[in-house]
Amino acid sequence: MNMITRTISILVLLVCVTTGLLAQKPFTEGVIVYQVKMGPDNPEISPGTFTVTVKGGQIKKEMKLNGQESIIIINCLTNKVYSLQNRNNKKYAIELSMDDMVKEQVRFKGFTIKNEYNDNKKIAGFAVSMGNAAYRDGTTTLVSYTKEWKPAQTITFDRFPGALFLPLEFLYKNESGLTMKFLAEKVEPGPVENAIFRIPADYKLISYSEYKELTK
User: Fold this and answer.
1) In the chain, at which end, N or C, are there fewer CB atoms within 10 A of the end residue's CB?
2) pTM
3) E-state strands within the chain
4) What is the pLDDT of residue 23?
């Protein structure tokens, strides 16, 4: 290969790399719906859904599993977090600490993707890459993702803070050994109504300490 050909090849490669980086878009508005399965080791039982709705600095996370519903509303612009709870037909919007939520993610920050490879399958219409998310404490988890999008807010996905990809299939394993499998069914960027992030009028706004007193 002569010098001119080599130079052209390098320029083409740089253009491709740059184009790939520029093509990646922050997911600033839209809805992502995951199918959720839960089990002690092989999470193939108790199907449910996990819906993430975003609009700028607002995030709503809704988990429906085993007949129960959990809703978290986050506003990154005002640093406000609310958990919507329905206990004995009494509805509460519990104000949580944004600082505490950020601290919970600290142990997952700085993760790296090991053994990345491209898979031929598609998830929610996206070609995916796969790899092991390796954390500083030595733990790993397999994740499939698209590089076409990335979360606009660091706090969007608990186990992938600061991710430069959108996770489409992944596992969560909690301290009790319960494993939850998430598989994206729908990724829909597009306009979202502000009303989705409002606390419903029939929910009573209380502090976390007040809620703890009520549940004693």
Assistant:
1) C
2) 0.84
3) 25-27, 29-39, 45-55, 58-65, 68-75, 80-87, 90-96, 112-123, 126-134, 140-146, 149-151, 166-173, 179-189, 204-207
4) 57
